[in-house]
Amino acid sequence: SFRLDVIDHEQELxxxxxxxxxxxxxxxxTVMGDRLMIEAERKFxxxxxxxxxxxxxxxxxxxxxxxxxxxxxxxxxxxxxxxxGILEVFLPKLEVAERHTIKVA
Length: 105
Fold this sequence. Notes:
Structural class: mainly beta
Number of strands: 7
Largest sheet: 4 strands, antiparallel
Order of helices and strands: EEEEHEEE
Shape: elongated
Radius of gyration: 18 Å
Low-confidence stretches: none
Strand content: 35-45%
Helix content: under 10%
Distance between the termini: 47 Å
Number of helices: 1
């Protein structure tokens, strides 16, 4: 798995995830009801498989995260961007709730 931030803006949710070494062609983002699924694959370079490692801690292979969305989103308007190893998924909210301040009596 990989680490994610879920940021609640007034008009949209933004999911930000760390995916260093992953190409945008190797990422799949799916919205299913109240869930967001991100699948990615960090590929191992063929030349590196032949090298003798003293230590091998960098993970390769398939990565997947599924998170429950805290609000309803417009799945048709979701878009994602990958820049410098950071994936950002923008999920516009279906209904933007207005904030009401209640005075305590």
